[in-house]
Design a protein that fits this description.
141 residues; five-stranded antiparallel beta sheet; Jelly Rolls; three-stranded antiparallel beta sheet; alpha+beta; 40% strand
Length: 141
């Protein structure tokens, strides 16, 4: 995934577009794991942009860069980013129904970038399920 600034960024469409084989699954699960220690994944409200902004504000308040961190070699935003990824989640599992991610009406997938400039991010996606001749698959996105 392309680099993003610190924040919580919607990725549902990006994930779905990268998984054309999803249409082959009648029922199943998609598992996503971000392969980084300073970013995370979330399912949250996709209707109001205030929700991601409020989550970022809360995380920044609770996990301050002003804390006396020991690990400081990679900059003041690095150790707080590690803590934020630990208290959020680096993996998600989402049901699949009739070839689509079965999210709630107001739910979306989000990349939580905890660094000011975290760089590109990789997510491993694995699909399990039953379908129209599809098989279980795993790959990086």
């Amino acid at each position: 995934m392309e680099p993003r600034p610190r924040g919580i960024h919607p990725i549902t469409s990006e994930v779905e577009a990268s998984l054309p084989e999803l249409a082959e699954y009648r029922v199943g699960l998609v598992h996503l794991m971000i392969r980084h220690t300073s970013a995370s994944l979330a399912v949250t409200e996709n209707a109001s942009p205030d929700v991601p902004r409020d989550i970022v504000a809360w995380l920044d308040d609770v996990v301050s860069e002003d804390f006396r961190w020991t690990h400081t070699a990679e900059g003041p935003d690095d150790m707080p980013a590690h803590v934020k990824s630990v208290i959020t989640s680096t993996e998600l599992t989402v049901p699949v129904t009739e070839g689509r991610l079965d999210l709630g009406t107001w739910q979306g997938l989000f990349l939580c970038e905890h660094r000011n400039s975290g760089g590109s991010r990789r997510i491993t996606v694995t699909i399990w399920g039953e379908g129209t001749g599809g098989s279980d698959r795993s790959r990086d996105h």
